[in-house]
């Protein structure tokens, strides 16, 4: 690894931490209809403004031992967690796509998915504005790739010379497959159980992510479903069968993780599978 590559990856981590601090603001304020710009960062308990030297991602929380400098009330550990996950998301984009414009498209996707995942955990809702932003960047990158030949999106490009090798067609196909699959699955679940299994936010997010994944969006849905089953079993361990069946979980975080996993490993995994089954 060259010095330039190391500097590039370290820079991604630093900026990921900085933007992770802003992600905490968006996660808290956006679902509540508050401005993400004003007022500045403040303690959730005493509303005292956070000093610049107390607003260093992760480090300040550790130095202050997770408490406000003014009132001494605990500051939730989730704040440094989001900052660290943001840094990890940015670093993952750089490691997966290198020093290429696709890395910028990937880090935008990963960063917005992180914000959406925590909002869904809080309020079980995926704000349309953020999902629309994901779709706009994805289809915009696919359109640029179609016009210029610069490989921006989908991140998981289909090889060959068929229609799905065309960036914009692959993005549209992925969007239809992702949103359509979740919508049909939800319709079937509702018909059998009399209640919805997924929200419309999940359908929209699956459709938006298709612009980045093309047909590999189906792999993202498979991963998301697998993570949801594992997470659901872990969260309901020890509960009876009836409470477990009635409990609701946000699917957004698991779907987000599935999207990132498919974006980073999808083509490699499919390639391994095809080489294993084909003579």
Structure description:
The protein has 279 residues and is mainly α. It contains 10 helices and no strands. The chain has helices at 3-29, 59-63, 78-97, 101-123, 128-148, 167-193, 200-213, 217-235, 241-246, 252-277. Helix 1 (3-29) crosses helix 3 and helix 6 runs antiparallel to helix 7.
In short:
The chain has helices at residues 3-29, 59-63, 78-97, 101-123, 128-148, 167-193, 200-213, 217-235, 241-246, 252-277. The chain is mainly α and 279 residues long.
Protein topology:
Layout lengths: L2 H27 L29 H5 L14 H20 L3 H23 L4 H21 L18 H27 L6 H14 L3 H19 L5 H6 L5 H26 L2
Helix pairs in contact: 1-3, 1-4, 3-4, 4-5, 4-10, 5-6, 5-7, 6-7, 7-10, 8-10
Give short descriptive properties of this protein.
about 280 residues; mainly alpha; 10 helices; about 0% strand
User: Pairing-aware structural class of the strands and helices?
Assistant: mainly alpha
**Low-confidence blocks of residues:** none
What can be said about the biggest beta sheet?
none
Average predicted local confidence, pLDDT: 88
Q: What share of the residues lie within helices?
A: 55-70%
* Proportion of beta-strand residues: under 5%
Radius of gyration: 20 Å
């Amino acid at each position: 690894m060259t010095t330039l590559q190391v500097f590039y990856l370290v820079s991604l981590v630093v900026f990921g931490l900085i933007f992770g601090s802003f992600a905490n603001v968006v996660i808290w304020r956006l679902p509540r209809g508050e401005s993400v710009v004003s007022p500045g960062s403040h303690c959730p308990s005493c509303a005292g403004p956070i000093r610049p030297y107390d607003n260093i991602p992760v480090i300040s929380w550790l130095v202050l031992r997770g408490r406000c400098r003014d009132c001494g009330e605990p500051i939730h550990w989730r704040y440094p967690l989001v900052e660290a996950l943001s840094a990890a998301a940015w670093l993952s984009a750089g490691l997966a796509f290198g020093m290429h414009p696709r890395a910028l498209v990937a880090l935008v996707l990963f960063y917005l998915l992180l914000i959406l995942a925590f909002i869904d955990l809080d309020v079980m809702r995926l704000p349309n504005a953020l999902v629309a932003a994901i779709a706009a960047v994805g289809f915009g990158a696919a359109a640029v790739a179609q016009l210029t030949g610069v490989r921006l999106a989908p991140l998981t490009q289909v090889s060959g010379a068929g229609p799905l090798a065309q960036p914009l067609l692959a993005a549209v196909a992925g969007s239809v497959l992702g949103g359509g699959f979740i919508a049909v699955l939800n319709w079937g679940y509702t018909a059998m159980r009399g209640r919805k299994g997924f929200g419309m936010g999940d359908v929209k997010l699956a459709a938006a992510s298709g612009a980045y994944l093309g047909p590999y969006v189906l792999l993202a849905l498979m991963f998301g479903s697998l993570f949801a089953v594992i997470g659901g079993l872990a969260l309901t361990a020890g509960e009876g069968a009836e409470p477990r069946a009635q409990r609701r979980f946000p699917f957004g975080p698991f779907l987000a993780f599935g999207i990132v996993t498919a974006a980073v490993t999808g083509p490699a995994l499919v390639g391994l599978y095809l080489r294993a089954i084909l003579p």
